[in-house]
Amino acid sequence: MEIVRRRLRERRYAARTEEAYVYWIRRYIVENDRRHPSDLGEDDVARFLSVLALREQVAASTQNQALAALRFLYGHVLGRPLAAVAGIVAAHRPRHVPVVLAREELRAILRRLDPPHDLCARLMYGSGLRLTECLRLRVKDADLQRREIIVRAGKGGKDRRTPLAEGCVRPLHDWIEQQHGRFARDRRAGVAPTGLSDALRRKFPGVEEDWRWQYVFAARRTVVAEDGRRLRHHLDASVLQRAFAAAVRASGISKRASCHTLRHSFATHLLESGADIRTVQELLGHTDLGTTMMYTHVLNRGGLGVRSPADDL
Predict the structure, then answer these.
(1) To the nearest 5 percent, what fractions of the chain are helix, strand and coil?
(2) Neighbours of 258 (CB within 10 A)
(3) Is 271 helix (H, G, I), strand (E, B) or coil?
């Protein structure tokens, strides 16, 4: 498993991908009576995927993730790429129409969120940020003068720029100013932010004490690293997810809305206001235009130009 981690890091895989791949490789080994993967083959992989699909009834995306992990194991760790065997095919992922909130529903939810959860939600909707992109935002990447957010190493390792809503400028400025006190205490106590690689610390000595590299939404508690350093992570995603779910319930909204719904609403409302589909693609950071095109399926006008015949009754 150490070799697996080393190969993943050599190829610059994201931390969450590394965690998922390691999990599935361990599951695969345990499912096969803890035998070494080099003693297993394509038939064992096919049987493992069948167990996931039939016995555990996992989603198609989960089954595909497990298959990708095993392909990485055999191709890049064991040096024996999996051959094309019946049963080892990517599962078909059903296409779901995204949930979109109306503006009145958004206002109702935002009114029921406390700081800084309300500001996080405003940024996700106002700038089309993913949940992790919002929580990993650092002070240097919030350009209040140019009214834009710079997303660093988003999905697929891509950087992008996205607009900062005018209504978020003052609240974001005030929140960042409030964090100066916490940063001063961290600096005196030797607490550094997480997510700074060894290469970055070598290139920019003292970067851990630089205000610009602090998280905008830092966690309250610190953690202790393996080398004994005290570190402060960003706000945990589950904290914001629970607060948002509670706000949705309190608003009486029947839609199955989550934090990611804010990003869906951002894209849909842009298209409804006449924004170009290519522009929306760039703002969302989609590599494939087809991914962005799914938002045209929830429009009553624009790309589809469909009007219900019931309107004429």
Answers:
(1) 55, 10, 35
(2) 15
(3) helix
Residue with tokens 């779901």: 96
Going by C-beta distance under 8 Å and a sequence separation of 6 or more, which residues neighbour residue 87?
Answer: 46, 49, 50
Q: How far apart are CA 179 and CA 211, in angstroms?
A: 10
Q: Is the peptide bond before 116 cis (omega within 30 degrees of 0)?
A: yes
Closest by Cα among 112, 71, 154, 128 to 259: 128
Burial of residue 7 (number of CB atoms within 10 Å: 0-12, 13-18, 19+): middle
CA distance 164 to 162: 7
Q: Following DSSP, what letter does each residue of 179-236 receive, concatenated?
A: HHHHHHHHHHHTEEES---HHHHHHSTTGGG-GGGSBSSEEEEEEE-TTS-EEEEEPP
Q: What is the pLDDT along the chain (313 residues), one digit of tens a residue?
A: 999 999 998 888 888 899 999 999 999 999 999 999 999 988 899 889 888 888 888 888 888 899 999 999 999 999 988 877 665 555 566 667 789 999 999 999 999 999 999 999 999 999 999 999 999 999 999 999 999 999 998 887 889 999 999 999 999 999 999 998 899 999 999 899 998 888 888 888 888 889 999 999 999 988 888 778 899 999 999 999 999 999 999 999 999 999 999 999 999 999 888 888 999 999 999 988 888 888 876 565 544 455 556 566 5
List of domains in the chain: 2-77 (1.10.150.130), 103-293 (1.10.443.10)
Residue written as tokens 């900062």? 164
Contact 66, 44 (CB under 8 A): no
Identity of residue 38 = S
Active site members:
130, 155, 260, 263, 286, 295
